């Protein structure tokens, strides 16, 4: 039976951040993930916003981790080769009588230690963002807000952890926890493991793990959010993230540029006990379309190229649950917005607690740098020519929409924590994320996966085991 110093349950952005910070220490660490790859849950379907930190209640863990995570993002993105830009954000007010709430949000941001906040009149805001609606009568400008690629951030954290010695076990679902004299017995569908400490980063299932280990119970409600992603021709409709004044269910429907040049609209917010249902609905899309139009005019919804649903782990106390909640059991539970922003800070915080608890020493040879798959589309003409001279596979374009080459896909398949599925390739290279949404490139990517991994086409999956694409080979 394999024994570890710490086992992290969940390979989303939070679990991967904890794993990377643990990899700075001497010890044996394992991440177990029930899906087939990193970034298969909440981390793959969110707003991709690096929040400034003005929204969370002062003194809460959400506030502290948000502000610290925002501060860390420049260094993290540089070390991990992750696309990130501080485009800023507006929180817009649509009614004169609600302007005091905007002032409250500004004061809350100051209490949280958020720098570079400014209150604007409606005219000032519309001068900077001409597509704001006429109803906008004021705005809070948060200059430190940014946009990031959530796939690249999660992959970067996970690959950095793996590069520094952390082991990963995919398709590994935790089925039970048992306290032992040495720590914990972690039962899974792939066999049992032992660990001196367990980290619970299981997303919408974090209450299940917590309640196995802790006397004081936790309740997580999946909060569903639907989004629409628009074509890159709509990407310049706004230049900053446009929020509406927060309500009971969060920051409301936003309109935002993405780091790759698209436009994102969403999310809705509906609580639902189903932890697996990520299907979009006509009613949800209609709702977000209507609400987006309140703050931003003429959103070109005819240019939607895809819609998707994300699940957020809403905790009944409306705060992150972090720390040692049972002997050598560490929670990272209830991680909803601003979880993506907060992940580096959560990793830093929990790894320090675990290192102190277990007496783990600092590693002398920790390497903070990780390079992602090189992207042909981002290179200059000279750089492209040199890359193709080095490796002719870079001259064979597989995905026309995003200009992704065979060389990039091969790098993704054979890299550390390499891609094994269509979605795995997509998240590492953007093949299939363009206007045609993989209509052209899917068969070609499948052929590369089949060839490089020695798999029959019937064995290729979109994501998990139940997502078979080719059911039966036909004879030509």
From TrEMBL:
<dbReference type="InterPro" id="IPR036188">
    <property type="entry name" value="FAD/NAD-bd_sf"/>
</dbReference>
<dbReference type="Pfam" id="PF01266">
    <property type="entry name" value="DAO"/>
</dbReference>
<dbReference type="InterPro" id="IPR052745">
    <property type="entry name" value="G3P_Oxidase/Oxidoreductase"/>
</dbReference>
<dbReference type="InterPro" id="IPR006076">
    <property type="entry name" value="FAD-dep_OxRdtase"/>
</dbReference>
<feature type="domain" description="BFD-like [2Fe-2S]-binding">
    <location>
        <begin position="397"/>
        <end position="450"/>
    </location>
</feature>
<dbReference type="Pfam" id="PF04324">
    <property type="entry name" value="Fer2_BFD"/>
</dbReference>
<feature type="domain" description="FAD dependent oxidoreductase">
    <location>
        <begin position="5"/>
        <end position="353"/>
    </location>
</feature>
<protein>
    <submittedName>
        <fullName>NAD(P)/FAD-dependent oxidoreductase</fullName>
    </submittedName>
</protein>
<dbReference type="InterPro" id="IPR041854">
    <property type="entry name" value="BFD-like_2Fe2S-bd_dom_sf"/>
</dbReference>
<dbReference type="InterPro" id="IPR007419">
    <property type="entry name" value="BFD-like_2Fe2S-bd_dom"/>
</dbReference>
């Amino acid at each position: 039976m394999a024994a570890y110093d710490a086992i992290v349950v969940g390979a989303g952005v939070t679990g991967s951040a904890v794993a990377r910070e643990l990899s700075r220490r001497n010890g044996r660490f394992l991440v177990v993930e029930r899906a087939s790859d990193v970034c298969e849950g909440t981390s793959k379907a969110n707003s991709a916003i690096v929040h400034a930190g003005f929204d969370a209640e002062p003194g809460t863990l959400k506030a502290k981790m948000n502000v610290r995570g925002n501060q860390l993002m420049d260094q993290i993105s540089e070390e991990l080769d992750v696309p990130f830009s501080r485009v800023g954000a507006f929180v817009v007010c649509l009614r004169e009588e609600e302007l005091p709430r905007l002032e409250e949000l500004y004061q809350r941001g100051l209490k949280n230690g958020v720098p570079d906040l400014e209150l604007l009149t409606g005219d000032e805001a519309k001068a900077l963002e001409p597509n704001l609606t006429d109803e906008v009568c004021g705005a809070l400008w948060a200059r430190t807000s940014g946009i990031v690629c959530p796939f690249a951030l999660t992959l970067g954290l996970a690959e950095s952890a793996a590069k520094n010695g952390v082991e990963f076990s995919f398709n590994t679902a935790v089925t039970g926890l048992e306290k032992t004299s040495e720590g914990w017995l972690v039962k899974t569908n792939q066999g049992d493991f032992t660990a001196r400490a367990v980290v619970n980063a299981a997303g919408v299932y974090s209450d299940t793990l917590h309640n196995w280990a802790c006397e004081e119970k936790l309740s997580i409600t999946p909060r569903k959010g639907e989004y629409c992603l628009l074509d890159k021709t709509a990407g310049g409709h706004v230049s900053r993230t446009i929020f509406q004044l927060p309500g009971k269910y969060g920051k409301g429907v936003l309109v935002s540029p993405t780091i790759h040049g698209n436009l994102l609209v969403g999310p809705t917010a509906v609580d639902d006990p189903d932890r697996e249902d990520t299907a979009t609905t006509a009613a949800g899309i209609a709702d977000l379309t209507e609400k987006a139009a309140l703050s931003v005019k003429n959103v070109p919804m005819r240019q939607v190229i895809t819609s998707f649903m994300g699940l957020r782990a809403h905790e009944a106390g409306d705060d992150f649950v972090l720390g040692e909640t049972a002997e050598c059991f560490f929670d990272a539970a209830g991680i909803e917005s601003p979880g993506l922003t907060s992940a580096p800070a959560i990793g830093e915080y929990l790894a320090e607690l675990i290192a102190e608890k277990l007496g783990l020493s600092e590693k002398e040879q920790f390497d903070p740098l990780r390079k992602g798959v090189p992207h042909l589309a981002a290179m200059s003409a000279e750089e492209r020519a040199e890359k193709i001279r080095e490796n002719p596979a870079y001259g064979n374009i597989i995905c026309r929409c995003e200009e992704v080459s065979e060389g990039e896909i091969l790098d993704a398949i054979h890299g550390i924590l390499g891609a094994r599925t269509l979605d795995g390739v997509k998240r590492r290279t953007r093949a299939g994320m363009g206007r045609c949404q993989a209509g052209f490139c899917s068969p070609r990517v499948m052929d590369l996966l089949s060839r490089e991994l020695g798999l029959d086409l019937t064995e290729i999956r979109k994501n998990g085991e139940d997502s078979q694409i080719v059911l039966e080979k036909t004879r030509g």
